[in-house]
Automatic annotation (TrEMBL), chains A, B:
Pfam families: HTH_5
Protein name as catalogued: Transcriptional regulator
PROSITE patterns in the cross-refs: HTH_ARSR_2
Taxonomic lineage from the root: Bacteria, Bacillati, Bacillota, Bacilli, Bacillales
Keyword field: DNA-binding, Transcription, Transcription regulation
Keyword Cell inner membrane part of the UniProt annotation: no
Domain HTH arsR-type residues, every copy: 10-105
Recorded GO MF terms: DNA binding; DNA-binding transcription factor activity
Length: 106, 106
DNA sequence: CTCCTTAATCAATTTTTTTTGATTAATAAA
DNA sequence: TTTATTAATCAAAAAAAATTGATTAAGGAG
């Protein structure tokens, strides 16, 4: 099957992909996760569990949503998973003004 | 009770308000509604019902969500309600690149 | 190997959102 | 006044998303 480039994506697919990304942003906890990760440059699940007082399974759940939407990158090191902001995707998606709220000085 | 300015809003409130706006954008139908309204400058519910092949109650439901998030303006004329894009809010929220997908040349 | 830590996943439940069809209210037209 | 049009709202049902606690798997330490 041929690769689908941006230019050959139809409007419907494009809007669906966009909606997925906004859905990932559509939760205050997930926005806070993005903010926390940004402030630490990179964070593992246990860091966030502690900082945000959320159970591990909930963190993993929300991180997966952000990861699937392409807003986070993940790097496994041993038993740890380190998550960081995909700044290119954030910049592509949201305004500078809002970027400064979610990922100040990132 | 005193008015709450942007500067006195705490981070929690700010993230919740932002999440509400992204929630409004987190649906391909609503993105399409924004796009359709933009292309016509202004549209009433019956226009959109016809163009998008959606029942009236569903349109009104989605329009209300977009309106509550501040992404649309509404003007009643007789029995009609005309909706238009709140471009200031769109610009404040999303990147130029994405603005061009949702509201091209608006 | 055994024990401990880390994090992903799972299944069941709860909560939220969306859909549907009907009703209501307001205005306009005949 | 009667009839038709427009759109908001409502209540019930369906669908989707989030929460919870437990289990699993993979590494690292002793």
């Amino acid at each position: 099957m041929a690769a689908v480039s941006e230019s050959t994506k139809n409007k419907k697919d494009e809007l669906e992909e966009l909606a997925l990304k906004y859905k990932a942003l559509a939760d205050p906890k997930r926005l806070e996760i993005l903010n926390k990760i940004c402030l630490k440059s990179s964070a593992c699940v246990c860091d966030l569990t502690e900082e945000m007082d959320l159970p591990q399974s909930k963190l993993s759940y929300h991180l997966k949503i952000l990861l699937n939407a392409g807003l986070l990158d993940k790097e496994a090191r041993g038993t740890w998973s380190f998550y960081s902001i995909n700044q290119r995707e954030m910049d592509r998606l949201i305004s500078n003004q809002i970027c400064n709220v979610i990922t100040p000085s990132c």
